[in-house]
Write the structure tokens for this entry.
Amino acid sequence: MDTLASLTALCACAGPSGREGPVAACALELLRPLVDEVKLDSFGNVIGVRRCGNKNAKRVVLDAHLDEVGLVITGATDGFLRFRPVGGVDPRMLPDQEFTILSQPPLFGVVAVLPPHVQKPGEGENGLPIDQLCLDTGLTQKEGEALIGAFAVPRRTLRSLLNDRVSAKALDDRAGFVTLLRTAQLLQDVSLDVDLYFMGSSREETNGGGALVGAYALEPHCFVAVDVTHARTPDGPKEGTFPAGEGTVIGLGPNIARWMSDRLVAKAQEQEIPYALEVMTGHSGTNAWRVQTAREGIATAVLSLPLKYMHSPVETLALSDLESSAALLAAFVKNLGKEGGSFFAD
């Protein structure tokens, strides 16, 4: 498996929350050769399974969401398209950005911005609220009104930076899914003692419904949410951020199963995999939050890749952190049925 090629292909796909079809189709084909079975469920989740062959084997789910933040068209004024966010979109990053409108056929648009020459004093000092922004596509009013309800995503391709860094839209959380692909590859020649499920879930950016539906159907004995956390930048706080390129990040907190985080830490130390710890006192901001209360309750853990500029078209991370995360997931899964002990008791 070519990690960079897989990441490039996934990030190129459009997949705003609730409209993940193109990226799900790509993810399914990338996962297919690495598992025994793969399918797309009724909620748009991509699910693959590697069966161990043992009767009544425990079920383990590794999850990464496939959706991305985006926009939805709500109206038109003189042909300029009004929109609202799908997921956590920061209005400050929208002006001057290029977008693809997911119509048939797809259309190109730019977020309109008033030039400084005609701004009133002080107008350029603060970002505009999202209800004052619009997309310019060159459409007539009637053509614009026909696009109400269409979704839009940033028009960006993945680019390689220096020192093993890459930048793209939707690395949150397509990088997490490529981590799952790499984990599956690392385990290809390893005998497992659990049935291992890989899930590319839908709708995380809006309500986490994909992972909840998937977990309810699969009834896992434990669930690991693989997502992103905030990487350190010069203008950001040191507390709660993690240097890119220095390893994976293991979540700790009251909503994370202690035995799972302990095992992740132990395996990282045993395998000399670089890692950091992130204390999550409440909502982790990941699919683990909702899945922990699915059915009778599911043991969950969170593993994160440090990501700069989250929810922007230029999200940036280090490929070495993806590799560290995959190596740790593989170590976590190996011999889990035997070493899980009382935590896996019926």
